[in-house]
Write a structure and sequence with these properties.
The complex is a heterodimer. By secondary structure, chain A is an all-alpha fold. Chain A contains 11 helices and no strands. Classes of the chains: A mainly alpha, B alpha/beta.
């Protein structure tokens, strides 16, 4: 019984590996992912002060982000599905969708990394309450669970969290409906507090 | 729902990969194989670290004369006073922590046939593969710019005491003086560097000596990020910075260090501070070891960065001919990872894979204003090439908010590339 199951898993694995090899003639996922480290840290573990950690984010979040960057044209801030960026739009255009998928799977397997992020402890404490009432349903476990469409917010660099929220609030980046409903209810101080809460998570 | 299923599938197959890879243990190993890395700048350090990270059975020795290394990147901020020398200093404990044998000595020759590296300290290091990252040396293209002149008219193009000297001269100069920057001909280390430097110097002068000027005398007619720099000069330093290109007679041909005078042809310019950046070539050991072409740089194979002049020796960083990659820290870091992966593969009896490279270069042009250039590279028909449609410059019309973010990302770049290379 156990043997059969194992053999089946191995068979799926080898078919899948063969498929991946064919699709990825060109640089390996590691070769591509290693080029990110100069800004996002060795193995996607950023030492800040702003570049986000990539380690452990879900493959689908990574892929959505990179495709969003690719969709951002130089003079168009609001293209459908586009993610605002300073430099990532220029870099993301260097990879095919297949290459982006390979990198996404690579970073997901590295496991979640929470950085030691400078934050305001009092705000983080107040933010814990905001989190419970407004964010916890989707950003599980203090924002440390790599859900399919939610980025890793726990132990994430505070300036990046702030830039991201500014983009959401100013309409440069589309919020999921549920998120918009919650964010619209929060004051600036509450948002500031909850971002400090996420940054403080270990 | 479909996402969940796909992820679940990945988890299952991920497990299977682990089982099958255990089923086929590597037969050819690299245990006991030796790599010698010559030079402990960003390229050499990164290569040493990434070889050890990929295969800790490989014995890696890095040879570098200095116990403390000062990064050229961000050293322009020392000139404005925004940054301390200490903040651009790196040491080698991080590499030691990765099991790299760090030797502080000067390499005097590389015997590619005998596969060994010799040092001034009389040591000899045998290797299976050698990685050379010697950085740059200066050409004698400016009459009178000798070792003594460098102490009066610093180049500050290798960070360290030269950076300190230039900063001291800026602090000592009178208000109303002219700071001259002699910008070198292509190709050279850090293409946007002289122009970022003009901004950082002007930042200091504007605050402390506002009647002063920065004159850039250039041996070229165009330069990196030109439109963005010109925009920054106007926006932040209105009229303080002036650029004279080669066609306008900007090429510096001679200096007289005694009278602090620089010459563009027959025209003499007596200046308060002269920052002379000479023409460049690969670091001295490269030509000694027979790794350079007739232009003084090291041709390489784009897949492995192995020298096309000497087998078994890889050359990375500023010294290599890796165009279209620029001579930048990020390119050196990226090239080092390609060379490291190739060396690890070769020492394990495997074919090196296809390379993927990135360059990302920030210039801090104002207190809350940074600009960048980026590009992704791969191998096409055996040649390093830009990936079509990728990369480019910060848009000229990008908002002050986005420019301020670029400053934060420039500092993130600095922190992470230091840690990724030496940490």
């Amino acid at each position: 019984m156990g043997w059969n199951k194992k053999a089946l898993v191995a068979l799926i694995g080898s078919v899948c590996m063969a498929g991946a090899t064919t699709a990825l003639a060109g640089p390996s996922a590691k070769a591509m992912a290693d080029t990110c480290a100069g800004c996002h840290g060795t193995n996607g573990q950023s030492i800040g002060p702003a570049s986000p950690n990539l380690a452990g984010m879900s493959a689908s979040y990574f892929i959505d982000s990179m495709k969003g960057f690719k969709a951002l044209e130089k003079d168009v801030q609001h293209a459908d599905g586009a993610r605002p960026a300073t430099i990532m739009n220029r870099i993301a255009k260097g990879y095919s969708d297949e290459q982006i998928e390979a990198m996404g799977e690579y970073f997901e397997k590295l496991g979640v990394y929470k950085a030691n992020v400078p934050h305001d402890a009092a705000k983080a404490k107040a933010g814990a309450e905001v989190y419970e009432s407004a964010c916890a349903k989707c950003h599980d476990e203090g924002g440390s669970l790599p859900g399919d469409d939610a980025g890793i917010l726990a132990g994430q660099w505070l300036p990046w969290l702030q830039f991201s929220m500014a983009d959401f609030k100013e309409g440069h980046r589309e919020m999921p409906k549920k998120m918009k409903k919650q964010v619209d209810k929060l004051s600036d101080a509450e948002i500031d507090a909850v971002l400090n809460y996420f940054a403080s998570q270990k | 729902m479909s996402q969940f299923t796909r992820r679940k599938f990945l988890q299952v197959t991920g497990g299977a990969v682990a089982i099958s890879s255990m089923g086929f243990p590597a037969i050819v190993g690299a245990a006991g194989k030796k790599v010698v890395v010559v030079g402990g700048g960003v390229g050499g350090a990164t290569a040493a670290k990434y070889i050890r990270m990929a295969d800790s059975s490989i014995d890696v020795t890095l040879i570098e004369p200095n116990k403390e290394y000062f990064t050229c990147f961000m050293s322009n901020e020392v000139l404005s006073g925004d940054r301390t020398m200490d903040s651009i200093k790196v040491t080698y404990e991080g590499l030691t922590g990765h099991g790299v044998n760090v030797v502080h000595d000067t390499v005097t020759d590389i015997d590619a046939a005998g596969k060994k590296v010799m040092t001034a300290g009389g040591q000899s290091f045998a290797y299976d593969r050698c990685i050379v990252a010697p950085g740059i040396s200066f050409k004698n293209n400016i009459e009178g710019y000798d070792d003594a002149a460098m102490e009066a008219m610093p180049h500050a193009w290798k960070a360290g005491p030269q950076t300190v000297l230039l900063r001291k001269q800026l602090e000592a100069m009178p208000d109303g003086g002219v700071v001259a920057i002699a910008a070198p001909p292509n190709p050279f280390r850090c293409p946007p560097g002289p122009y970022e430097r003009s901004c950082q110097i002007a930042m200091y002068l504007k605050a402390h000596k506002p009647k002063s000027k920065v004159m850039i005398f250039d041996a070229k007619d165009k330069f990196s990020k030109q439109g963005l720099f010109k925009q920054a000069w106007e926006k932040h330093y209105g009229g303080m910075i002036e650029w004279v290109g080669a066609e306008g007679g900007g090429t510096v041909t001679r200096v007289d260090a005694g009278s602090n005078t620089i010459y563009t042809g027959d025209t003499a310019h007596k200046v308060a501070v002269a920052n002379i950046i000479p023409a460049q070539q690969a670091g001295a050991i490269a030509s000694k070891a027979g790794l350079t072409d007739d232009k003084g740089w090291c041709p390489i194979d784009g897949r492995t960065f192995e020298s096309t002049m000497k087998a078994g020796v890889h050359v990375i960083g500023d010294a290599s001919v890796a165009a279209p990659l620029p001579k930048s820290a990020y390119a050196a870091n990226s090239e080092a990872k390609v060379a490291a992966a190739a060396v690890v593969a070769m020492l394990n009896g495997k074919e090196p894979g296809d390379p993927s490279l990135v360059n990302t270069c920030y210039s801090v042009v104002g207190h809350h204003d940074a600009i960048s250039v980026a590009m992704v590279y791969d191998l096409k028909d055996g040649k390093l090439s830009k990936v079509e449609g990728a990369g480019g410059l910060t848009p000229k019309e990008s908002s002050p908010e986005m420019r301020a973010r670029e400053v934060e990302y420039a500092y993130s770049w600095f922190a992470n590339i230091k840690k990724d290379s030496w940490g």
